[in-house]
Task: inverse folding
C-alpha cells in the first residue's frame, strides 16, 4: 500500500456512489467541503486500481462530484480513456459519460487517445456501443476527431438501424462544424435521409438543416422542395416547427418560395391545437412572410388570441411577435394597443418590458405627450427597476433622430425636469445631456429651460440625491449660460451658492461656481447699464436710488414678468454674499473648485472698489472708475455671450491641412527623448495642474518644443500620443460611426412617419387612451441640426461576410460550382438523388467516393458535357421537373433534376423546384 | 445549437443535474447556474416561464420542489421547449414511477442517459417515451 496505491482493501470496501450521495446528504453545510475532499482522496486512490469495477465506481463518483459540486476532474481524463476500452458496456458508459461531461474539446489532449476506441465502437455490431460512441462524439468532437472519424460516420449515415442512423445524423452536425471538409463526403447521404419515413431520422435530419440554415441559408435553397414536402405531409409538431424555422430563413431569399409556403403555413396555424406550432407559424409569417397580407392578418389575429390568454407565457410570446411585426406593420400594434397598455401593469416584469418596448414603438409626434404621460404615471407606481426602464425608454425614444417626435419643446423640457424629480430616477446622466443639448439646439426652448433649471437648482432637497447631481450640473450650466432670460438673477445666485451645495461632487460644484460667475457678470453688466444696446424696449426702473448715475434696468426682450432691482446696495449685498460663500472655497483642495472660486473672487476684488466708488473721490474720478469697470465687465460679458453651438463630430476633418505640415511621418525617434515625460491622465480640466507640470517639465519640454516647432516628421506620432492621453479635448475623428450611436436614426423617417401619422389619426380619434392633442397654434421650433455629421449618418449594418466553410462545401455539393473544373478528375455517383454527384479525389476521400460510386460514371460525365453545350435542353429538363415534381422519389427523375441543377445556376433552381 | 444546457435545480438552489451542450469551464458553469437559478427562483407562478439571461433564453418549469431549466438560443421555440421539459418529466416518471428529487439524485447517470437519448448536440432527436427508455431498460435487464 506504499505511496497510497490501490489495494485489495480499497476494492473490497470501496464506497459506492450511493454511499457518497448519502454521505453528502448527511454532512452539514460546513462539513461538506471537508467530506468532498476526503472522498476525493479516496477516489484518487481507487481510480488507479487495475480492477475495472473499482475504477468505474471511482470514476462514477468523481463524475458526480464534478457535475454537481464543481470538483475539478481533469486529472482523471486518462482514466476515462482507459476505462472506455472496457468490454463491459456499463463501464464504457461510465467512461464516456465522464468524458462527455468533463472534457474540453479544445484543450483536453486525451481526446486524441479516444480516437481509436471511438472508431472501434462506431463499427461495433452492438448498436448500443455505436450509439454511445455517437453521443460522445457529439459532445467532445474536435477537428482532429472529426477528420479521423468521418469515414465511419459516413457509413453509419445509411445504417439499417434507424436508432443508429438518427444519432449519426445528429453527430454529423458537430463534425461539419469542426471539419467542414466532411460535408463533401457526408452531405449527400444526409440529404437522402430527408426522404426517410422514420420519424426519429426525419426529426434529426430536419434539426440538422435547421441549424445549418441559420448561418448561411442561401446554400440550402435547392433543398426547398424536400422541405416543402415535409411541411405539407408531416404531422409531427416537433419536425414541423423545425421546418418552419428553415422556411423562415429561406423565404426572404426567394419570393416565389414565400408564395408557395404561405398557404400550408396558414393551414397549419388554423388547424393545429398545439400552441407551440401555432406560435411558430405566427413567428414565421411575421418574420419572413409579412408581405402576404392575408396571412399576416391571420397571424395578427392569432397574436391577439395569445395576448388575451390568461397564460403569461402566451402573453409574453404574443408581445414578442407583435414587436417583430411592428417594424414593418405598425397597424398590428395599434390594433392591439389596449392590450399592450394593459400589459404594462402586468405582474411579470418580463411582460411589462415587452409591452414597454411596444408602446415606445407606437410613439409619433401626435401622441408622444399622451404616451409619455401614461408612462410617467406607470413609472411613479412601479418599482425602482422598472421605473428606470421606463425612463430610459422615454429618453431614448424622445431624443431619437434629434428629437424628431418632439414638437412642443417647452413641454418636453419641463417633462425632463419632472423626470429628474422622480425619487428612483437613475437616469441623471441622460437627462443632463439632453438638457444641455436642447439648450444649444433649440433657441425657442431656452426660456422654459431656464425656468425648469431654476426650479431644479433652487430646490435644496434635490442636492442630497446622488443620482441627479448630473441633472443639477446641467441646470446650473443652463442658468448661467442663459442668465439673461432669468426672471431673478439674485435668487438664482442665492440658489447657486446655497450651503447644501457642499453635498455636490467637486466637478458639479465647479459648474455651479462657474455659473455664479456668469450670473455675477450679468448682474454687474446690467447694473452698469451696458445692455442698453441689447434690449429692445428699455424700461426705467422706478425704484431707482438717487446716488446712482445711470441705473436703468432693462428687461431682456423675452423676460416676461418680474423686475429686479439693481441698486448699488443690492449689488453690494450680492458681492458680499458671494464673498462669504466662496471665500472659504479659495482654499479648497479640489483644483477645479478652488480655481473657479478664485476667479469669481478676483472679479469681485476688481469690481468692488469701482462700484462703491471712492466716497472721497471726486465726481470725475468716479465716472472714470466706472468707465474702467464697464470696459472690463463688457469684455467678460461679451466673452460669455458668444453663443455656444453644437459642434459637428466631423468638423475637425474639414479643417484643411496647412501647406508644409507633414502629418503622416513617424515620430518614433522622439520616444527616447520624451519617454519619461508623461502627463498624468486627467479626467477633468484644470489650469493649475498643467501649469505646475509645465514648470516641472520645462527642461524636457524645451528640447521637445524645439523639435515640435519645426514641422518635423515625428509630429504625427506625438500628436497621436497626445491624443491618446488627452482624447477628452479632441473631437472624435472616427465620428461617422459614433454619430449614429448618439442619435440613432429612425428606420426610414419620412415615408413611415406619414403612414404612421395617418394610422395614428385614426387611432387617436377612436381611442380614449391616446387622445389626440395637437397644437396647431404652436409650430415646432427650429431645432439646430448639423447638416453633415448627425443627419442620418446611418451605418448600414455591416453584412457579416463570414467565410462559411460549411456552406461553401454545401454549395459545392448541391450546385456543383466546381463542376466544370473538376470534371476530369471527378467520379460520378450512381444514385444522385440531389445535386452534383461528385466526390473529388483531391480531398483525400478516395475510398469513400468509391463506396457510393459505381460504373455509371462515364455516362453521367457525358451528360454533363451535353448540358454545357446546350442551354435549351436545360430548360426542357426544368419543365419536365415542374410537371412531375410531385413524384420525385424515382431515381430517374431526381437524377434529371440533379443534372439540371448542375447546369442551371442557383437563380433558376427555385423555379423548377417548386 | 438549439439547446445550450439543461439544469435541474431544487428549491434551495442546489443543482441536481447539469448537462451542457457547449463547453464551459467550472467557474463559468458555477456563475451561470448561480445567476440563472437566482433569477428563476425569484419568480412566481403567475409570471411567464421565460427569462432572458446574457445571450441565452432560459425556459423553465417547476415540478414540485424541482426546477427544470433549459437554456436555448434566441431561435428556439419557447413553447416547444416547455413541452420538451414536460416530456422529460413524463419520461422519468414512467421510468422511476412518480419521480422525485431523490430519484434523480441517486440515479443521475440514468437521467443523463435519458437526456442523451432525447437531445444530441443541442437538437431534440427523440420524442417518443418508449424509444427513449428502451435502451435503458435493456441495460437494466443486462446488469
Result:
Amino acid at each position: 500500500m506504499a505511496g497510497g496505491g490501490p489495494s485489495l482493501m480499497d476494492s473490497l470496501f470501496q464506497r459506492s456512489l450511493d454511499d457518497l450521495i448519502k454521505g453528502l446528504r448527511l454532512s452539514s453545510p460546513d462539513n461538506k467541503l471537508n467530506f468532498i475532499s476526503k472522498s476525493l482522496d479516496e477516489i484518487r486512490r481507487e481510480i488507479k486500481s487495475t480492477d475495472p469495477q473499482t475504477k468505474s465506481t471511482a470514476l462514477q463518483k468523481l463524475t458526480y462530484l464534478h457535475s454537481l459540486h464543481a470538483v475539478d476532474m481533469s486529472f482523471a481524463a486518462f482514466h476515462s480513456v482507459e476505462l472506455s476500452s472496457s468490454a463491459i458496456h456499463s463501464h464504457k458508459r461510465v467512461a464516456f459519460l465522464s468524458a462527455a461531461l468533463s472534457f474540453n474539446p479544445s484543450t483536453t489532449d486525451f481526446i486524441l487517445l479516444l480516437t481509436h476506441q471511438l472508431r472501434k465502437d462506431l463499427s461495433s455490431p452492438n448498436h448500443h456501443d455505436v450509439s454511445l460512441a455517437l453521443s460522445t462524439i457529439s459532445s467532445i468532437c474536435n477537428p482532429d476527431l472529426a477528420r479521423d472519424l468521418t469515414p465511419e460516420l459516413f457509413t453509419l449515415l445509411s445504417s439499417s438501424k434507424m436508432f443508429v442512423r438518427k444519432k449519426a445524423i445528429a453527430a454529423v452536425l458537430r463534425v461539419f462544424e469542426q471539419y467542414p471538409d466532411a460535408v463533401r463526403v457526408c452531405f449527400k447521404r444526409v440529404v437522402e435521409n430527408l426522404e426517410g419515413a422514420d420519424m426519429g431520422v426525419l426529426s434529426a435530419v430536419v434539426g440538422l438543416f435547421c441549424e445549418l440554415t441559420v448561418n448561411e441559408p442561401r446554400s440550402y435553397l435547392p433543398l426547398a422542395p424536400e422541405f416543402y414536402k415535409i411541411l405539407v405531409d408531416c404531422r409531427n409538431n416537433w419536425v414541423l416547427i423545425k421546418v418552419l424555422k428553415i422556411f423562415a430563413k429561406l423565404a426572404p431569399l426567394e419570393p416565389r418560395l414565400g408564395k408557395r409556403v404561405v398557404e400550408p403555413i396558414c393551414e397549419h396555424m388554423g388547424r393545429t391545437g398545439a400552441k407551440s406550432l401555432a406560435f411558430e407559424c405566427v413567428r414565421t409569417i411575421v418574420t419572413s412572410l409579412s408581405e402576404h397580407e392575408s396571412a399576416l392578418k391571420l397571424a395578427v389575429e392569432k397574436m391577439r388570441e395569445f395576448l388575451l390568454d390568461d397564460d403569461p407565457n402566451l402573453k409574453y410570446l404574443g408581445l414578442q411577435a407583435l414587436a417583430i411585426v411592428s417594424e414593418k406593420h405598425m397597424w398590428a400594434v395599434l390594433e392591439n394597443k389596449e392590450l399592450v397598455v394593459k400589459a404594462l401593469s402586468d405582474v411579470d416584469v418580463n411582460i411589462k418590458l415587452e409591452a414597454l418596448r411596444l408602446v415606445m414603438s407606437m410613439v409619433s409626434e401626435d401622441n408622444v405627450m399622451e404616451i409619455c404621460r401614461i408612462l410617467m404615471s406607470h413609472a411613479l407606481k412601479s418599482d425602482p427597476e422598472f421605473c428606470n426602464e421606463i425612463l430610459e425608454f422615454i429618453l431614448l425614444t424622445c431624443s431619437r433622430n434629434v428629437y424628431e417626435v418632439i414638437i412642443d419643446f417647452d413641454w418636453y423640457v419641463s417633462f425632463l425636469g419632472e423626470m429628474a424629480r422622480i425619487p428612483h430616477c437613475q437616469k441623471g446622466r441622460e437627462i443632463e445631456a439632453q438638457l444641455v443639448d436642447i439648450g444649444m439646439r433649440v433657441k425657442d426652448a431656452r426660456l422654459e429651460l431656464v425656468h425648469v433649471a431654476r426650479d431644479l437648482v433652487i430646490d435644496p432637497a434635490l442636492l442630497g440625491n446622488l443620482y441627479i447631481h448630473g441633472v443639477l450640473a446641467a441646470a446650473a450650466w443652463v442658468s448661467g449660460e442663459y442668465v439673461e432670460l432669468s426672471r431673478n438673477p439674485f435668487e438664482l445666485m442665492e440658489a447657486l451658492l446655497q450651503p447644501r451645495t457642499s453635498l455636490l461632487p467637486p466637478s458639479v460644484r465647479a459648474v455651479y461656481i462657474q455659473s455664479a460667475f456668469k450670473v455675477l457678470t450679468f448682474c454687474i453688466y446690467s447694473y452698469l447699464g451696458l445692455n442698453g444696446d441689447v434690449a429692445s424696449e428699455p424700461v426705467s426702473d422706478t425704484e431707482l436710488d438717487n446716488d446712482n448715475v445711470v441705473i436703468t434696468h432693462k428687461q431682456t426682450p423675452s423676460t416676461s414678468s418680474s423686475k429686479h432691482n439693481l441698486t448699488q446696495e443690492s449689488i453690494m449685498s450680492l458681492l458680499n454674499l458671494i464673498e462669504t460663500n466662496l471665500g472659504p472655497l479659495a482654499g479648497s483642495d479640489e483644483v477645479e473648485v478652488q480655481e473657479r472660486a478664485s476667479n469669481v473672487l478676483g472679479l469681485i476684488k476688481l469690481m468692488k472698489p469701482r462700484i462703491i466708488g471712492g466716497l472721497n473721490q471726486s465726481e470725475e474720478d468716479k465716472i472714470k472708475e466706472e468707465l474702467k469697470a464697464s470696459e472690463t465687465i463688457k469684455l467678460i460679458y461679451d466673452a460669455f455671450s458668444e453663443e455656444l453651438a453644437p459642434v459637428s463630430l466631423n468638423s475637425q476633418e474639414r479643417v484643411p491641412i496647412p501647406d508644409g505640415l507633414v502629418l503622416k511621418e513617424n515620430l518614433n525617434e522622439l520616444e527616447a527623448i520624451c519617454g519619461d515625460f508623461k502627463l498624468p491622465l486627467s479626467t477633468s480640466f484644470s489650469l493649475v495642474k498643467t501649469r505646475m507640470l509645465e514648470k516641472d517639465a520645462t527642461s524636457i519640454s524645451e528640447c521637445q518644443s524645439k523639435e515640435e516647432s519645426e514641422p518635423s516628421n515625428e509630429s504625427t506620432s506625438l500628436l497621436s500620443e497626445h491624443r491618446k492621453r488627452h482624447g477628452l479635448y479632441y473631437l472624435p475623428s472616427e465620428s461617422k460611426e459614433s454619430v449614429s450611436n448618439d442619435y440613432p436614426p429612425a428606420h426610414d423617417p419620412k415615408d413611415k412617419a406619414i403612414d404612421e401619422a395617418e394610422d395614428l389619426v385614426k387611432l387617436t380619434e377612436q381611442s380614449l387612451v391616446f387622445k389626440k392633442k395637437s397644437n396647431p397654434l404652436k409650430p415646432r421650433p427650429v431645432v439646430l441640426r448639423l447638416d453633415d455629421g448627425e443627419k442620418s449618418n446611418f451605418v448600414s449594418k455591416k453584412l457579416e461576410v463570414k467565410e462559411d466553410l460549411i456552406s461553401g462545401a454545401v454549395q459545392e455539393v448541391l450546385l456543383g460550382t466546381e463542376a466544370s473544373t473538376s470534371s476530369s478528375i471527378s467520379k460520378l455517383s450512381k444514385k444522385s438523388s440531389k445535386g452534383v454527384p461528385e466526390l473529388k479525389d483531391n480531398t483525400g476521400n478516395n475510398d469513400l467516393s468509391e463506396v457510393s460510386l459505381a460504373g455509371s460514371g462515364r455516362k453521367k460525365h457525358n451528360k454533363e458535357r451535353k448540358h454545357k453545350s446546350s442551354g435549351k435542353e436545360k430548360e426542357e429538363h426544368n419543365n419536365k421537373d415542374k410537371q412531375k415534381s410531385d413524384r420525385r422519389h424515382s431515381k430517374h427523375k431526381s437524377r434529371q433534376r440533379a443534372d439540371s441543377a448542375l447546369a442551371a445556376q442557383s437563380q433558376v433552381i427555385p423555379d423548377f423546384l417548386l | 445549437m438549439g439547446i445550450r444546457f439543461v439544469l435541474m435545480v431544487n428549491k434551495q438552489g442546489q443543482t441536481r443535474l447539469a448537462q451542457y451542450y457547449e463547453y464551459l469551464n467550472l467557474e463559468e458553469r458555477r456563475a451561470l447556474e448561480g445567476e440563472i437559478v437566482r433569477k428563476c427562483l425569484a419568480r412566481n407562478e403567475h409570471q411567464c416561464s421565460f427569462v432572458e439571461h446574457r445571450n441565452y433564453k432560459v425556459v423553465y418549469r417547476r415540478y414540485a420542489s424541482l426546477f427544470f431549466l433549459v437554456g436555448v438560443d434566441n431561435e428556439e421555440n419557447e413553447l416547444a421547449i416547455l413541452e420538451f421539459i414536460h416530456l422529460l418529466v413524463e419520461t422519468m416518471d414512467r421510468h422511476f414511477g412518480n419521480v422525485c428529487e431523490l430519484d434523480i439524485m441517486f440515479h443521475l447517470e440514468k437521467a443523463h442517459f435519458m437526456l442523451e437519448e432525447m437531445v444530441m448536440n443541442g437538437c431534440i432527436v427523440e420524442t417518443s417515451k418508449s424509444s427513449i427508455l428502451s435502451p435503458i431498460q435493456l441495460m437494466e435487464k443486462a446488469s
About this structure: The first strand of chain B starts at residue 3 and ends at 10.
